[in-house]
Design goal:
Structural class: alpha/beta
Radius of gyration: 22 Å
Shape: globular
Strand content: 15-25%
Number of helices: 16
Length: 323
């Protein structure tokens, strides 16, 4: 652990030398930093490449989903909004229609995934559990229990409605409502360590699913009308539906795109699969690392990925990292 931290510190020191010698070519750029781990890692990776590869002066703006889009609407800043989850965000669609923002990329290529899961070792042993129909027909194989989100979480409302729609009670599937995200995560870890059954709700990308290989249970077809109903506590007659992935993007202002087309091209290329991001978050947690240190870990271990994102000039500047 100590060697890892020292190596990262050394690389960060070297990175600062790049920034003092790089010729500024793109001026000042502001970029959002969301208040969750994956969003912070995306911003830190982007900042590193913008500064060290493109000579930008980058201002990081701590924010979250709605405030970041509201700020763009009112002030035109920040120039770049990373990891923007588009579910229930009509304001972004309005800005896009008005020509004020451009969707550069699906930064999480799989989308944000809120699903019901079983451990891979359980799916391998009992393939029938890969579908919800199979799980409900064999509740004893998953321990007869569904691990639910804590009260107060938005997705808890969906789960509670779907539990009724799929008639868990009639299938003798008990529901355990966790008191916190920490106990929910701990239940996955405990099941994995003991190789025991587990069935419940979680989301990706996260450090937990980066560390423990889980299989999303096929919940059947998606029904838009049914999904609209289950998002409300007042859904009187919840019906069966799967949970769709949420589109997660990086947006840039039209002003920046016109001013710095090379930066738009870069941001179009920065994408992570949920598995890739989950592995980064698992490394971050295991090493108690900051988002900046996690970005350096990515830069120094995933050269085949990010060198394909940048232009020739940036690649030349950063070539010292792998020589």
């Amino acid at each position: 652990m100590k060697k890892t931290v020292l190596a990262i510190t050394s690389i960060l020191a070297g990175a600062s030398l790049f920034s003092t010698t790089a010729q500024a070519s793109c001026g000042e750029i502001s970029i959002s930093e969301m208040n969750w781990s994956s969003g912070q890692v995306v911003t830190s990776v982007s900042k590193f490449l913008l500064e060290q590869g493109y000579g930008c002066s980058v201002q990081v703006v701590p924010t979250s989903t709605v405030p970041s889009v509201t700020s763009v609407a009112e002030t035109g800043k920040p120039d770049i909004v990373t990891e923007l989850w588009l579910n229930s965000l009509p304001l972004y669609k309005e800005l896009e229609a008005q020509g004020k923002v451009i969707t550069a990329a699906n930064v999480l290529s799989d989308g944000g995934q809120d699903s019901w899961w079983i451990p891979k070792y359980l799916a391998d042993k009992h393939p029938e559990l890969k579908t919800l129909e199979g799980v409900l027909a064999n509740p004893e194989l998953v321990g007869g229990r569904f691990h639910n989100y804590p009260d107060g979480w938005g997705s808890r409302i969906k789960n509670d409605n779907l539990i009724k729609a799929f008639d868990f009670q009639g299938h003798k599937m008990a529901v355990f409502n966790h008191g916190s995200g920490e106990t929910l995560a701990a239940s996955i870890a405990a099941a994995y360590n003991a190789q025991e059954p587990w069935f419940g709700s979680y989301w990706a990308p996260t450090s937990v699913l980066g560390k423990y290989e889980m299989v999303a249970v096929d919940m059947g077809e998606y029904d838009d009308k049914a999904h609209s109903c289950i998002t409300s506590k007042d859904c009187a007659n919840p019906q069966k539906t799967s949970l769709p992935a949420t589109t997660v993007i990086t947006a840039v202002t039209t002003d920046l795109a016109k001013r710095e087309p090379e930066i738009l091209e870069l941001m179009k290329n920065i994408t992570f699969s949920n598995a890739e991001m989950g592995q980064l978050l698992a490394w971050q947690e295991a090493n108690k690392a900051s988002s900046e240190e996690t970005a350096v870990h990515f830069i120094t271990t995933q050269q085949d990925t990010w060198t394909g994102w940048i232009n020739d000039d940036a690649r030349k500047k950063l070539s010292a990292l792998w020589q």
